[in-house]
Predict the structure.
Amino acid sequence: MTVALLVNPAARAGAHTGAAERAAERLRTHGVRTTILSGGSAHESSELLRTAIELGAAAVVVAGGDGTVNLALQEVAGTGIPLGIIPSGTGNDLATTLGLRELDPVSAADAVAAGATRDIDLARVTRDDGSRAYFATVLASGFDSRVNDRANTMRWPRGDSRYTLAVLVEFMTLSGLPYEVELALVDGTIRRVTGDLLMATIGNGTSYGGGIPICPDADPADGELDVTLIRPAGRLRLLRLLPRVYKGTHTGIDEVSTFRVRSVRLASPGVTAYADGDPIGTLPLTVDVAPRALRVFVPR
């Protein structure tokens, strides 16, 4: 097997600090031919990966977090080319979903070499200009996308606590935003939600931001997407809500609505949506499910 191992040198938690080299060395001991790809930008990384696939790479492995994994998704979605993850980024939420988060680079490489795979769904975003992109975990808009804006500009602290601090800072200026949401429910009916929302999130996976279970019941292999909408409330009440969000027990609160959908359209003026931790487009956006679009390596 020939593997293209993608590293993004701009990854926030330093995916290039040795994890890729250790994983590549381990793969080679298993007889897996491994080429490390490291672009100077997201665009260059994508081009390098695309070329490697055209030249016959049988599998793709990513050393990094969800943002770097997302670059690879765009190239391997729907192809049947399996994707492996060496979790070494800030969030690692897809790695958590796949049971890889706690693996060190050597153990994660062993999972690739062992060859066990499963097929999971992806969420597919269609922008108003017709362009498309995929994501694997959660799309965030509203309060949580503002948290991402802030977290991405913070130099300290590193790791998951960066998101926690960004949440607390953004909470101080919390306000609702006008939304129009159109939900194509799994029973075939259409439901529309309009009015102010604090946040609107779409989950193919359960968590974002390094393990925050915003869509706690999402299953990336059920052919459906989970939507979580949170309406404005008093700041003190919302402050009490935050710990429940981190525990995944928030879905029973009056201000929280959840839906199972085949597709959803989100619209709100000037709001940038984030998916897999990085910007994916400005609302309005339409998101639908691409069933079993990604083959991933998993531990045996």
Q: What stands out?
A: The radius of gyration is 19 Å. Residues 2-115 form a domain with the Rossmann fold fold (CATH 3.40.50.10330). Helices lie at 19-29, 42-54, 66-76, 93-97, 105-114, 143-153, 161-171, 235-247. The chain has two domains: 2-115, 126-291.
